[in-house]
Amino acid sequence: MGKLGVIIVAAGKGSRMGTAESKQYLQLGQKPILVHTLQLFQNIHEVDEIILVVGADDVNRCEAYVTGYALTKVTRVLAGGAERQDSVRQGLQALQEGTEWVLVHDGVRPFVKIEHVFECLAKAQEVGSAVLAVPVKDTIKVVDAADKRIQSTPDRRSLWAIQTPQAFRLSLLQEAHEAALRDQFIGTDDASLVERLGAAVHVVEGDYYNIKITTPEDLPWADWILHNVRGEERS
Ligand SMILES: Nc1ccn([C@@H]2O[C@H](COP(=O)(O)OP(=O)(O)OP(=O)(O)O)[C@@H](O)[C@H]2O)c(=O)n1
Ligand SMILES: C[C@](O)(CO)[C@H](O)COP(=O)(O)O
Fold first, then answer.
1. Residue 146 falls within a domain, yes or no?
2. Residues 6+ apart with CB under 8 A from 139
């Protein structure tokens, strides 16, 4: 099997969190959220390389994390772009020669279960692309943006909340990003770029602990998961 690269995207501003410090740098237990995520993939033997994509002003700080936490698999710390998609594209361009498979993961998802990472990668190696996801628990409705009138109620049985990592054959994801750039298409995840090529993307069921830390309400939940599910000592 060709090399496995991981792109960790952490170049966002965290505006929904509303903190002066971008959310990926907020302390979770003894260290920043982003460091938890980086260490998770550092400790996966099969990972050959990690590309870290951060805000331009945070490159030096994150290079210090790489040294300080001995994140030896992080080969590049790059400045991201205006959109998440731009940041991923920066990461794709940095992957080493011989990389065949790539995982794209949000830097603010520190709790993904290792087994689920492997299951997602295995599915991608079977069908080309795969993403972690969980069945939605709420009823989801399509609502008119102007008057908030409900337009439709999709069958919940077909709805999944999509997570990361998202796993792809590198050549396919590169093709998808090139097409999106050419067409000026912006998607909220990488799978949507691959889907628009007409390529198959499959979900792999993860768990509800793989939260994307986004708003202030997520912080106590993250602290609880850290200390009651992922087993790290309380700070
Ligand atoms: N231009 C961007 C935007 C987002 N991200 C990263 O993509 C992940 C998921 O994005 P999100 O949770 O939306 O983070 P932010 O964009 O920072 O949050 P907000 O939308 O509240 O500003 C995060 O790790 C974020 O840092 C990125 O690398 N580059
Ligand atoms: C990629 C993602 O985490 C899948 O749910 C999500 O689309 C990221 O969205 P965000 O607005 O960039 O957080």
1. no
2. 153, 156
Is there an atom of ligand 2 within 6 Å of 189 CB?
yes
Q: Is 120 helix (H, G, I), strand (E, B) or coil?
A: helix
ipTM entry: 0.98
182-232 confidence digits (pLDDT tens): 999 999 999 999 999 999 999 999 999 999 999 999 999 999 999 999 876
* Intra-chain end-to-end CA distance of the chain, in Å: 40
Q: Ligand 1 centroid vs 10 CA: distance in angstroms? A: 6
In a domain, 139, yes or no: no
Amino acid (1-letter code) at residue 92: L
Q: How many CB atoms within 10 Å of residue 18?
A: 9
Give the tokens for residue 172.
């396919």
The number of folded domains in the chain is 1
* Contact call for residues 134 and 205 (beta carbons, < 8 A): yes
| CATH number of the CATH domain containing 128 | 3.90.550.10
Alpha carbon separation from 87 to 32, 71, 72, 82, 92 (Å, rounded): 20, 20, 21, 7, 9
**Ligand 1 mutation target, pool 7, 13, 77, most atoms within 8 A of CB:** 13
The residue to which tokens 């390389």 are assigned = 49
- The answer to whether the CB of 39 falls within 8 A of the CB of 66 is no
Mutate which of 8, 112, 160, 212 for ligand 2 pocket (most atoms within 8 A of beta carbon)? 212
Q: What's the distance, CA 111 to chain centroid?
A: 11
